[in-house]
Amino acid sequence: MTRTASKWRERELFQTLGSFSRAHLLRIGIQLDLFVALRQPKTAKQLAQNSQFAPDLLQAWLRAAASHGLIRMVRERDRAYEIDGLAKWLLETPNSAPLIALLEEAIEGHGPIFERMPDLIAGAARPEFHSPAESRRAAGVSRLVERQALAALGRIPGVRDARRLLDVGCGYGGYLVGILRRYRDAHGIGIEQDAEVAQVALQNLRAADLLRRSEVRVGDFMSLNLDIGSHDLILLNNNLHYFAPRIRRALFERIFSRLIPGGLLAIQTAVISDRAPARWMGLSASAAAFDLYLRAHDNLYGLPDLRELHSSLLEVGFQSIAEVAFLPGGSARYVWARKPRTPVAASLAGERDATKGS
Q1: What digits encode the pLDDT tens for the residues 22-52?
Q2: Angle between helices 306-316 and 248-258 (to 10 degrees)
Q3: Mind listing the pLDDT tens digit for each residue in 242-278?
Q4: N or C: which end of the chain has fewer CB within 10 A?
């Protein structure tokens, strides 16, 4: 390796380490409301008034945050700073809340798992994903692509005509709110296992004045009492990885039986895409890292193989299976499928599940 190439790689390493530091500096400023305070220029002394901040650490954070372009010095005589760059954008963008949840998830969720990854790869027991904090972060992050995903849903044939919606793993209820706002005579049911997350979904539906056309049930979709053949559209939004591959046949059969003839299933999933737009945006790398994170848990499963997913849906009896991409390079998409309109084409497995009821 030439001296120039070696120096370039050394610089790349320092930039990588700098990104790690920058993420933590950004999180500190958000958690302590320092960026909010710095919407107007302030010195370290002014920030420390009426607080228990350690003056030396606060001043050091200001210098570090400025060196990373998160704030800038506006008065050198008294060393006053104000918010700038990425931090300013993050607090002002319409996607601020889910992006901050993504930052929290990267540090609080992915960080500890990746620290343990050498041992996990070497065969150590994998942890379970189950804490309330993990569920809340996942629900918050999922809101990041809601606008694009809802637009993609509208491009699936038949979605605009769906009037009875079931959202499996509804999170904070963003998809229920989005669809019910678009289609004024539609009704929706959200299913959520985490009671606190479900309560937030109810609050969001109430705030949107949609409670008369919606409900949220707390529980497991695989065991809840749901009417046979009662839904036009069933959604699985970025949560197929919660279902073990060995039970996905049963999952799809249960969904099949709860759809009306001609009803739709839409599965949202991230995809590890090698297309240039996905690589340039960092979405390909993010999806690959997410897949690794999922597989490092005992009760989470990797991103689905799309060919296997298509095959599984066909085996259950679904027809017209297709995909609609909605992030650059196809790095996120809906895999959708339709239940046949006539019972003759329905799978025997689907019929058996329908006769059981629950």
Answers
A1: 999 999 999 999 999 999 999 999 999 878 8
A2: 50
A3: 999 999 999 999 999 999 999 999 999 999 999 999 9
A4: N
What is the C-alpha to C-alpha distance for residues 97 and 151, in angstroms, rounded to an integer? 20
How far is 236 from 222, CA to CA, in rounded Å? 13
Angstrom distance (rounded) from CA 66 to CA 80: 11
Nearest residue to 261 (alpha-carbon basis) of 154, 158, 152, 191: 158
Other CB atoms within 10 A of residue 264 CB: 26
Backbone angles phi, psi at 42, to 5 degrees: -145, 155
Q: Percent helix, strand and coil across the chain, each rounded to 5?
A: 55, 15, 30
Question: Which 3 state secondary structure label does DSSP give 320?
Answer: strand
User: What is the secondary structure of 183-216 as a DSSP string?
Assistant: -TT-EEEEEES-HHHHHHHHHHHHHTT-GGGEEE
* Residue 296 token pair: 């490092």
The encoded tokens of residue 239 equal 């949560």
The single-letter code of the amino acid at 111 is G
How many Å apart are CA 86 and CA 91, to the nearest integer?
9
